[in-house]
User: Fold these one by one.
Assistant:
Number 1:
Amino acid sequence: MGFRDIKGQDRAINILKRAISNDHVSHSYLFYGPDGVGKKGVAISFAMALNCVEYNDDACGLCTPCRKIVAGIHPDVTILHEESGEIKIGAIRDVINGMVYKPLEARKRVIIVNEAERFNLSSSNAFLKTLEEPPAETVIILISSSPDMLLQTILSRCQKVAFNQVSPQIITDILIEKLGLEQGQAEFVSYMADGSPGKAISLSSEDIQQIRVEILNGLFIKGNSNKIAAFDLSEKYAKDEGYFYNMLFWILTCLRDIMILKENGNTELIINKDMNNALSKVKDRVSMERVLDTMGLVKSVYKGQDRNMNRQLALDVLGNKITEGI
Ligand SMILES: [Zn+2]
């Protein structure tokens, strides 16, 4: 691992490399930008670069400090990440207390706070004190996809490093290289990933692909004859919030594809390319008005979630409408 393994964030990485080569490394950074674009990977690579004994424009990945950081066992490199909920004061107290001592092994101690927007007020204030009087030889990296949720007083003490969305071409390359996807499938997933390699990788999981195929077959392809399958699908996927949103997402992609096929028949623009033939048949038997109407229904189901809508009931209504001719 190292900077070389993070694709599409050259600008952010160059800022950090320059800071090292000019000996102008800040005490505190805020890495901000969309989820899944490599902020945490760059933070770990930066910790390696600051401590690597063979550093040459990037960490070697092989020396003892590099290997310890990658393995998550370096005593002076801490990644703070709560599984869920707020980052409470208890979680950061040990880290803050430890900073009064010199690093045990490292040239630079590195504290990485993932999802820093989950600081609650008391942990924010405790951390603020540390930022106001930064300990020597310590670099603090806050990571956030919602920096506007952080206290202004914290933001103003950090050097900000922006991370951007990654282009679909780069995401396609990553999926081919890391997951061994075929070109067509990788292009298809990268198109939907909103510039996030992390999202692309999770969308590529077999589990998610399975949902996609089930939904396309169950709701769209078999049409009217398959009302039972539609109810089975909603029963299966309404239980879990993640699956529920995935189901809505794939339904929307199908409706969008049908709309494009009806508009101009350009199969290059559709998302579910592997279902092109089947979707082309569907588009002949439905009206544009009906497609738009159903898209509106999907969107209102999305919004209804905020009001604790019954998920299975919502999917039943949606599935019924689609199997009746969209
Ligand atoms: Zn090294």
Note: The longest helix spans residues 241-263.
Number 2:
Amino acid sequence: MTRPEEVIPYGFDGTAVLKQRPDALVFPRTVEQVAECVALASTSAVRIVVRGSGTGLSGGSVPLSGGLVLGLTRMDAVLAVDARNLTLRAQAAVTTQRIDEAAADCGSRLGPCVGQVGTFSSASA
Ligand SMILES: Cc1cc2nc3c(=O)[nH]c(=O)nc-3n(C[C@H](O)[C@H](O)[C@H](O)COP(=O)(O)OP(=O)(O)OC[C@H]3O[C@@H](n4cnc5c(N)ncnc54)[C@H](O)[C@@H]3O)c2cc1C
């Protein structure tokens, strides 16, 4: 996506003062598509910023200037829950709330988290 009305909402996050307009957005669905985007951007010297839900409060998902926003929101599946070993495998954009719900299904909890719509991978990173 490259039209102004499409890219403008991805030029800021939960940080009130920071704002930039990316040149383009991509929303991969698979790991292979992520790798393809990164390889293409790398060979073309295009800057990438990874974005989860865009709720961060320190401008981490705001592009520096132009460049490509790699939006991960379509990669939001919980892949496997192993109740016995208390482990869970999920794609990058699963929210902390969803992780908590999946854990609750097998009698465990992620624990309280205020920013529930934020992605777990971003919180971890
Ligand atoms: C109401 C509210 C309450 C909040 N409460 C808390 C809180 O209690 N504790 C707390 O820690 N934070 C809190 N936050 C901040 C925010 O929700 C968290 O920082 C959350 O982890 C951001 O997730 P996100 O998916 O929105 O990340 P984004 O804002 O999209 O990205 C944040 C950073 O992570 C990077 N990133 C995103 N995805 C990945 C990935 N897959 N791999 C590597 N890097 C990645 C981005 O490039 C960026 O630098 C709160 C925010 C709000 C609005």
Note: The first strand starts at residue 24 and ends at 26.
